[in-house]
Specification:
By secondary structure, this protein is of the alpha+beta class. The protein is 15% helix and 32% strand. The strands form four sheets. Strands 8, 9, 10, 11, 12, 14 and 15 form a seven-stranded antiparallel β-sheet that branches. Strands 5, 6, 7, 13 and 16 form a five-stranded mixed β-sheet that branches. It has a two-stranded parallel ribbon with strand order 1-2. The N and C termini lie far apart (72 Å). The relative contact order is 0.16. The mean pLDDT is 91.
Length: 284
């Protein structure tokens, strides 16, 4: 057997030899790139490779995130990604072990910050409009979501609350954990992709893909997003702003149609949070 240990210990079961490929991201290429009719439908390795430093120097290898080194010096072999076994129910040992492993990985993948590309981009009210600029930085070395991005979704959930009355003034991306996102929400910031068939219609079948609409979050540069809410702010000068980036490995309708028994076990991960109480002065 081959592996990444340069001086493997002898054992009674098989011969062991070192091979450098097991330390390199190239090892992941065969299963993590898929092209159909010249359409890049699953391209996690290529997304990683398109970052110059990664390709030239093999920086930020797949193994460094998905097989991190443990305190004992050995690599973690859980191969955490974004999926967990939905045949296990929440609360069971196997479910919780996988859930916590994936959650740890995902909470190190994104940073949320208030602000835009310039110092002037701040939370403010102008006339009847409330502006909330948000900076989203993808720390993963590939798009988010990646892999079968067309079955996955990441999005921003935002709530703006009047600090004095606790009235919910604005929101976007709010869901019950088992419900689909409201794609008619004009404020929704959603990261996903869509496969299109030969007629230009959305399909869930990779074999029927003739095109793809990519709406994923790239690894660089940061994404700046500006929320603009219209309202009456004459009597409001203090807001609680709560923003969370959420993720799930399956769009609920996919499980609802083919595996309804698994839908109740589908977790919604909170990747990052951003909270603040903001005092905003109105300007004409």
């Amino acid at each position: 057997k081959y592996g990444s240990l340069e001086n493997p210990e002898k054992n009674d079961y098989h011969e062991s030899q070192y091979h450098p490929i097991f330390k390199r991201s190239d090892f992941c290429l065969p299963c993590h790139n898929m092209i159909v009719r010249n359409i890049e439908v699953e391209m996690t390795f290529t997304e990683w490779r398109r970052i110059p430093g990664n390709d030239m120097s093999d920086l930020n290898s797949c193994q460094s995130c998905h097989m991190p080194i443990k305190t004992n010096g050995n690599h973690n072999h859980e191969f955490s990604g974004v999926d967990i076994n939905l045949n296990n129910a929440p609360g069971t040992i196997l479910y919780e072990q996988q859930y916590n492993s994936v959650l740890k990985l995902m909470q190190n993948a994104v940073i949320l910050e208030f602000g835009g590309a310039t110092e002037e981009d701040i939370v403010r009210i102008i006339g009847d409009s409330l502006f909330i600029p948000v900076k989203i930085t993808n720390l993963a070395q590939h798009s988010l979501p990646s892999g079968t991005s067309f079955s996955r979704e990441a999005w921003l959930e935002i709530q703006v609350i009047n600090s004095e009355s606790q009235e919910l003034l604005f929101s976007s991306g709010l869901i019950d954990d088992l419900s689909d996102l409201n794609l008619n929400d004009e404020y929704l910031l959603l990261f996903t992709s869509y496969l299109l068939d030969k007629n230009g219609e959305v399909t869930e079948s990779v074999s029927q893909a003739h095109d793809i609409i990519k709406q994923m979050l790239p690894p660089s540069p940061p994404r700046y997003h500006l929320y603009k809410f219209i309202g009456d702010f004459n009597s409001v000068n203090q807001f609680e702003i709560n923003i969370r980036m959420k993720f799930r490995a399956f769009k609920p309708h996919l499980l609802r149609e083919d595996h309804p028994e698994l839908l109740q076990n589908l977790p919604v991960f909170v990747m990052a949070t951003l909270q603040d109480t903001v005092y905003v002065q109105s300007s004409p």
